Each structure stands twice: as C-alpha cells, then as structure tokens.
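Reviewer 2 asked us to include a model.

Predict the structure of this chain.
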Amino acid sequence: LRQLLNKKTKELSENIYRDQIAEDDALDTETPLKTGDAVLVKSLNQKGYIVSDVDDSQNVTVQIGLIKTKVKKSDLIKIKSDEETKQKDSTHRMVKLKTSSINPKIDLRGYNLDEALLELDKYLDDAFMSNLNEVQVIHGKGTGVLREGITQFLKKHKHVKEARLGTFNEGGDGVTIVKFK
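Predicted model (structure tokens):
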C-alpha cells in the first residue's frame, strides 16, 4: 500500500511539474535554439542549458547540472531563463519550507506579558500564512496574568476568528485554542 501511495505521489508531482513548466516557462517553439538557451529535455523531464549548436544530425549538447548529454533537437522545449524565474522558484521553496515547519502549538510559559505578546504575534502571522486552521497557545495556569493579557490581545488580532480556553483534555485553563479567519 505504501509503495502504491509513493508511486502515485511521484506521478502527481511529475504531472504538476510538467504543467507548471508548460504554464510558466514554455516559450514559442518556433524560436531557433542557440548556445546558452535554457531548455527542458522532455524525455528526461529536466531543465538544462544548450552547450553547442545543432549539428548535422539535429542533435544538441545540453548541460543538465554537472552532466553534458546529446539529445535530439525535437526533444527540447525552450524555456525562460531569467532572474525572475530563479527568484520565484526560491521564494516558493522558502514558503513551502516555512509552511511545513510550523508547530500547531506555542509554549509561552515563563515569559513576561510583553515578551509573550511579541512572540505570539509573530507566531500567529506564521501560522496563518501556513494555512493552519487552529493553534494552541500554552500559557500555563499560574496567576492568570499571562492568560488575561493573551485573551485581550487575541480579541483584537487581525487573523483570529475565535479564541477559547482549552477543554480538560486539551490542557484546561492553561491553554487557549485559537481559530483563524
């Protein structure tokens, strides 16, 4: 079952990658290929750069990473190769990385109110941008100063739809459950 799931996931990833290239990067196929052009090698589903011009047998040498290989001209699609594409890709990767690393809980026990509110504000922005629906804010029971301050802060926060104290199995009065808009 796991192997089937991994296989299907890989197929979907490849299809999404191809569609993304088709939408974002594909250029007019009638433009002649020249040395230095960025291309997609269809059979390998890899991006590379043309290293040599087309020879008599319609082959082109393409560099894909550290490897140079000869491929048929018909197996190439010319794609965009500017700083915007690279910048867009790196930004997308960074957002994706940040999204996957957000913990649905933040522990603010031991902070004073001002420090806790600064941490909480940053955390709520990150969690909201990560498309989390709900997070747990652990403030502890103590004297209740932190809980009260956090409750007042959450009532005014731009991303918060609802905030409530946790149930017994969620941590009781020591936890606030926050739902986003």
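Confidence is low (pLDDT under 50) at residues 21-28. The two ends are 36 Å apart (CA to CA). We have added this to the supplementary material.
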